[in-house]
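WARN retry 2 of 3 for item q-0093 after timeout on previous attempt; input resubmitted unchanged.
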Amino acid sequence: YAPETEIYYADFPSVEQQRNYISQGAIASLLVCLLILTAFGIS
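OK item q-0093 returned
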């Protein structure tokens, strides 16, 4: 059998990580909106 790793609880993301997640989400949303608008513009 494979060795079992020790179980640990996840830490809450720091303020800097939360800001990174927010900015990544905003950029992803912007790209999706631009993709949809481009598709409507071409069709």
